[in-house]
Amino acid sequence: MRIGELSHLTDVSVRSLRHYEKQGLITSIRLPNGYRDYSPLAEDTVATIKLYLNLGLTTEQISSFLTCVLKNKEAFCAEIMPVYEQKLAEIERQLAQLTQIKANLVDRITSIQQGDQANKNEEDLDDH
């Protein structure tokens, strides 16, 4: 199948498919006219890539275990657990950072609101 058809079937842009091929995640053969021709299995491969991208993994991370998971169940792919654990640790660091940023913003908002209220109280006293 040609790249446009694969794009349509998988709802993945032609640009992304070219990127996946450049990363070695999918392969094609070149026809005499220069067009890419993909195996029917490419549709399943792209669906698997999309699944892992939706877990927040990069194409580089996916490439480290994709061949294994396409042939076996995830549980049989030793390469996948370290990637999952690394991604989870990264997300936990990001959540901690976002929690701190949220607390800082709440503090700033509270401080500004209290400052505004104090200014209004002073203005009210000056008016009397």
Task: Describe, in plain words, how this protein is organized in 3D.
The protein has 128 residues and is mainly alpha-helical. It has 6 helices and 2 strands; from the N terminus they run ααββαααα. The protein has helices at 3-10, 14-22, 42-54, 59-63, 66-71, 80-127; strands at residues 29-30, 36-37. It has a two-stranded antiparallel ribbon. β1 (29-30) and β2 (36-37) form a beta hairpin. It is elongated. The model has no long low-confidence stretch (mean pLDDT 92).
Helix content: 55-70%
The assigned structural class equals: mainly alpha
- Overall body shape: elongated
Query: What is the helix tally?
Result: 6
- The fraction of residues assigned to DSSP E strands is under 5%
Radius of gyration from CA coordinates:
26 Å
Question: Would you list the SSEs in sequence order as H and E?
Answer: HHEEHHHH
Strand order of the largest sheet: 1-2
Distance between the termini: 83 Å
Mean pLDDT: 92
Largest sheet, described in full? 2 strands, antiparallel
List low-pLDDT spans. Answer: none
Number of strands: 2
Oligomer: single chain
List key phrases describing it.
mainly alpha, two-stranded antiparallel ribbon, 6 helices
Question: Gist?
Answer:
It is built from six helices and two strands. With 128 residues, it is mostly helical.
